[in-house]
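Q: What would this complex look like in 3D?
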Amino acid sequence: MVQGTLDLLILKIIALEPLNGWAIGQRLKQVSGEVLQVSDGSLYPALHKLEQEGWIKAEWKLSENNRRAKFYSLTRLGRKELEKEAANWNRLSAAISRVVKLKEA
Amino acid sequence: MRLKHWFYTVPLRLRSIFRRGRVEQELDEELRYHIERQIEEHVAKGMTPEEARYAALRAIGGVEQRKEECRDMRRVRLIEELMQNLRYGLRILRKSPGFTAVVALTLALGIGANTAMFSLIDALLLKNLPVRQPEELVLLSRRFSYPGIRILREYDQVTTGLVPYTPVRLGVSIAGQVEPAALGHLVSGNYFSVLGVNPILGRLIGADDDRAPGAHPVAVISHGYWRRRFGSDPAIIGKTISLAGMPFTIIGVTPPEFFGVEVGSSPDIFAPVMMAPQLMPAGGPIAEEGPLLEHIGYEIFQVFGRLKPGVTETQAVAGLEPPFRQIREALAKRYAHHFDARVPQRYLQENLAVTSFSNGLSQLRRQFSRPLQILMAVVALVLLITCANVANLLLARASGRRKEIALRLCLGAGRARLIRQMLTESLLLAFMGGALGLLFASWGRKLLLAFMASGLTPISLEARTDYRVLGFTGGVSILTAILFGLTPALRVTRVDLTPALKDIAPGLSGATFRMRLGKVLVVSQVALSLILIAGAGLFIRTLYKLNHQHTGFNPENVLAVRVEPRGSNDLHTNVAKLSQIYSALTERVSMMPGVKSVTMSNPSPFSSGRFSAISFPSRLLVNGQPSTDHDDQNPALLAQIYPRYFDTLGISLLAGRDIQLTDCSRDAPKVAVISKTLARRLYQNADPIGSRLGERGRDYEVIGVVEDVKYGTLREENASVIYCPFPNGQTGRGQMTLQVRTTGESPALISAIRAEVQRIDDTMAMNDVRPLSAFISAAIVQERLLTALMSFFGLTAMLLAAIGLYGVIAYSVSQRTHEIGIRMALGAQKRDVVGLIMRETMLLVVIGVIIGLSAALGVTRLVASLLYGLTPNDPLTISLAGLLLLTVAALAGYLPARRASRVDPMAALRHD
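A: Here is my prediction, written as C-alpha cells for the whole assembly.
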C-alpha cells in the first residue's frame, strides 16, 4: 500500500460515520473490495497516531452488539486534514495515471 | 492553526502522562474488543473457537508489540522516562535520608551564597531602571548649576529634554509633628515625563510646577512613603506636608516599582527644582554670590536626558560640547580671582562625557561593585569546592551500587539510559539544594544589606527573588548537577560486569580509578580553599591594621549630628543668628543628664562636613615670612570649631591652650590651634605658640598644638589642620556638626538631642544622631564586609576540603584493609601503618597546597587596591594560610590512619 495512504483511508471512513477500530478494518476491506488489505496490526498504531495529532477523537460507546467499544470520529482539524490529503491524493493519482497512459512510440 | 493544534493535543499528552493507568487500560480494552469481535466473526464463518482465536491473534501479530507501537504514538516517551527516573531517583534518595540531607545542605550553601550574591549584583549593577525604554537614557558626566542647565538646554538638539535633579535631606513635619528627616529629590518639570513614569494616585510634577523660584510648593511622595507614613490613605492628595518648615501640597504618588534614578537610595519625596532655595539646607540668598538658582558656580544638579531616535552617545557629546565650553568659560571668569590660582584653569580643562543611564546612578555601586565582584568570585569558588565534595560523595555511594548497576546493564538497560537516570538523581539533589539555597539567599541578602548599610541609612535596594534570580538559581543548579553528577555517572556505568556481579572485591581497575578521581577532586579542593583562606587572611590583617590605626581621637561614647539652620550657607549675613542658635544648642544639650561635654565643629571626623578652606604651604606666612614648606600636594586645611572640641573628642592638647568661648566672636582677636604635623612642617623644632600664621591679610595667632587626627579615611596621611574658632574660619558657610560626649551608652539621648534641635529651630535640617564610632565602621565597611565573608567562606571551604579528604582516605583505608592486615601480620607496627596512610594523605595535601599557593600568589593581586599595610603576596599571611590548611588536612587524614592501625590482622586476613 502506498505510504501514508492509510491515514487518508481511515480519515475518509470515519468522516462518513463514527466507528470503532474493528469496524474500521471491516469497512476498509468491504469498500475496497478486499483490494486494500490493511493488516489488523498496523491499524491501531495508525489510529493512535491520528488521535494524538488531534485529527480524530475517541469516545467509548456501546457497539452494535451491545458491548463497550472505542469509537473514533473526525475533529474539525481532522476534516481539514482530510480535505488536504484528499486533494493531494487526487493530484498525485491524476498525475500518475497521466504518466501511465502515455502511449509508447 | 498552531494554537488550535495544541488545543487538541496538549490535553492528550497530559492525559498520557498523568492518567497513564487509565490510558493503558483503555488500550488493552480496545485491542481485546477487536480480538473478541474477530473471533466471533471467524466462529460465525465456521471455525472452531480454538482456530478462531489463533487466527485473530495471528492477524494482529503480537498484542504486546502493537501496544508498544501505540504507546510510541503518544510522543511522551522522553517525559515518561523522565518521570520514571524522577520516581526512581526520589525512591533512592528517600532510602538514604542522611546522605540526601548532607548533600542538599552542602549544595544549598553553595547555591544559596551564589544566589544571594547574584541578586545583589543584579540589583546594584545589572538591572535597568523601571522606566520607559531605559536604554535610551544618558547621563552627563558632570554636575551643572541652574544657569548652566539653561545654557545647555538652549543648544540641546540631541535629547528630548535635559532633566536636572538633586538629592536633598528634608526636615519633615506632618500636622505639626516633627517626623524623621526624609530623603528628597528636587526634580525638574520634565523629570517624570522624560522617564515615562505615571502616578498611581493624583498627578506628578509637570512643567507648570517648575516655572518660578519659590512659587510651587507641591510635593509628590513615593509609594513606599505613602504606605509607610500615611497607611496608603487614598485621600492623601491635597493634604499638606511641611518640608524645611514650609507647607507643601501633596499632589501625587509614584508607582511602587519606581525608586527614582539612584539605585540604593530611593527618595521618599519629590519636589520641583524651583523650590531649591526653600528646600536646600544651605538655601536662602547667598548675599555675596547671588540667588542659588542664578549662581553659575553652584553646580549641584545631576543632568540626564533621553536621546532622540538615532542619536549616538558620541553625537550627543559633540552636540553638547559648545554650550559646555561656554559654561566652563563663564566659570573660569567667575572664579578668576579665586584664592587657589589653579581653579580657573582647571575649569577650562574639564571635559564633558555622556554615559548610559539605563541602570541609573549609584553611590552604592561605586562603593560596593568591587567588593561584590570579588565576593561573587569567592562564592563561585565555594560552589566549585561544594561540587567536588558532592561528586566525591556520589562516587563513594556509586561504588556501593556497582552490583545494582551491573545487573541493570546485564538486563539490557542502555548505558545512556543509566547515565540519564543518575543525572536525574543529581538534578533532584541540585534542585533540592537550589530550593533550600533560595531560602538561604534571602536571609543572606538581608544580612548583607544590613551589613553594607552598617548602622547608617538603611539601603533600599530592589533585591528580591524575582524571575531573574529564579532563573539564575535554576541555571546554577543545573550546571552544578552536571558538574558533580556527570563524572561519577560516566565512571560507574563503565563497569566490568563479571566481577561486579560475582561480588568479588571491587575489580582493581575500578577501585584505582575511583581513587584517582577522588584524589584529583581532593587536591583541587585543597588548592581552591587555600586561595580563599589566603584571601581571608589578607583581609583579616588589613582590617586589623586599619582598626589599630591611630585616629588621634576617641570615638567611644560620642554622638554626632550635622545641623544645617536655614541661611547657614551665608555665614557673613547670618552670623548673629547662627551664633545664637549654636550657643543655645550647646548650652541646652550640655545640661542634659548623661552628657559629659558638648562641642561643635566643621568638619567632624568621619561623619560630616568638609574643611572650610585650604591654604597652600607655599602661600602661608609664618610671622610675616613665607613658609619654608612648599609641599602644595598636602595643603593646610581650615576647620572651624567651638570650645571643648579637643576635650570632647579626646584629642590631646600637646602645647598651649584650648579655644575659649571668648575667642568665638567676630570681634575677638584671631587665634588658632594647629595640628602636630602642621607644626612640624612649618616650625620644625621651634615653638609655634605665640607666632602668627596665615595668608596675607588674614592671619591667626597660634595658641596651641594638638595631636594629629584622621578625618576622612583610616588610610589617609595625617592632615595638616588649622583649627579656628567659630565663626572665624575663612568660609562663607556656617553648617556645623554637634558632638556630644556621654557618660555611657545612652540611646535615650539620641531622641532627646533630636527634639532639642527641633525645639530651637524647627526649620533646621538635620541628619540622624549617630555614634561617632558608627561612622568609623561605615568608613571601613568594604573591608569589614570582605573580611567577614571571606573568613566565613574560607573556613567553609576548608571544612569541605577536610571532609572530602577524610572521605577519600577513609575509603582508601577500607580498600586496603586486607593489605594492611598482611603488613601487620608480617610485623608492621601501628606507627608504620599510621605513617603509611599519612604519607598518602600528606602527598595529596602538599600537592594541593603547592597548586593553591601558586594560584593564590597570582590571584591575590586582584584585591591589592583593597588591602592596607601589606602586599597582596604578604609572605606571612600566605604561609600561615598554607600551614593552617596543612594542619587541618593532617587532622582529617589522621582519623582514618588511626583506624587503619587498629586493624586486627587476623580479622582482616579472614575477610573475603
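A: To summarize the key features: Chain A touches chain B through 25 residues (CB under 8 Å). Residues 26 and 67 of chain A are 17 Å apart (CA to CA).
Q: Very helpful, thank you.
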